C-alpha cells in the first residue's frame, strides 16, 4: 500500500512539475509576440509628419523609420 501511495505521489508530482515547467516556457515564447504588438500594425492610424493627415500604415510610404501618407510628403520631408 505504501509503495502504491508513493508511486501515485510520484506520478502526481511529475505531472505537476511537468506543467509548471511548461508554463514559463510558453510565457517566454509569448513575450516576443507582445513586443511585436508594440510595433505598428497595418491598420494602425498614424499622423503624417509632413502634412499632418492621419492614414493607415498599410496606405503609407516608409522612408527611413518614418511613415508618410504619400510619396509627395516623402519628397517634401527630404527637401
Ligand atoms: Zn502627408
Give the tally of β-strands: 4
Overall pLDDT level: 82
Strand ordering within the main sheet: 1-2
Secondary-structure element pattern, one letter each: HEEEEH
Number of helices: 2
User: Residue share in helices?
Assistant: 55-70%
In the residues, how many domains can be counted?
A: 2
Low-pLDDT parts are none
* Radius of gyration over C-alpha positions, nearest whole angstrom: 26 Å
Percent of residues in beta strands: 15-25%
Bound molecules: zinc ion
Shape: rod-shaped
What's the story with the biggest beta sheet?
Answer: 2 strands, antiparallel
Label the structural class. Answer: alpha+beta
Q: What is the end-to-end distance?
A: 86 Å
Please explain how this structure is put together:
By secondary structure, this protein is of the alpha+beta class. Helices cover 56% and strands 15% of the residues. The protein contains 2 helices and 4 strands. It has helices at residues 2-38, 71-77; strands spanning 45-47, 54-56, 61-63, 66-68. A two-stranded antiparallel ribbon has the order 1-2. Strands 3-4 form a two-stranded antiparallel sheet. A hairpin with a 6-residue loop joins strand 1 and strand 2 (54-56). It is rod-shaped and about 85 Å long. The termini are far apart. The structure holds zinc ion (ZN).
Amino acid at each position: 500500500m505504501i509503495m502504491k501511495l508513493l508511486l501515485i505521489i510520484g506520478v502526481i508530482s511529475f505531472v505537476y512539475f511537468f506543467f509548471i515547467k511548461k508554463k514559463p516556457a510558453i510565457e517566454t515564447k509569448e513575450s516576443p509576440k507582445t513586443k511585436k504588438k508594440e510595433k505598428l500594425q497595418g491598420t494602425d492610424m498614424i499622423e503624417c509628419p509632413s502634412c499632418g493627415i492621419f492614414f493607415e500604415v498599410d496606405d503609407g510610404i516608409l522612408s527611413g523609420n518614418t511613415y508618410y501618407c504619400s510619396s509627395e510628403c516623402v519628397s517634401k520631408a527630404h527637401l
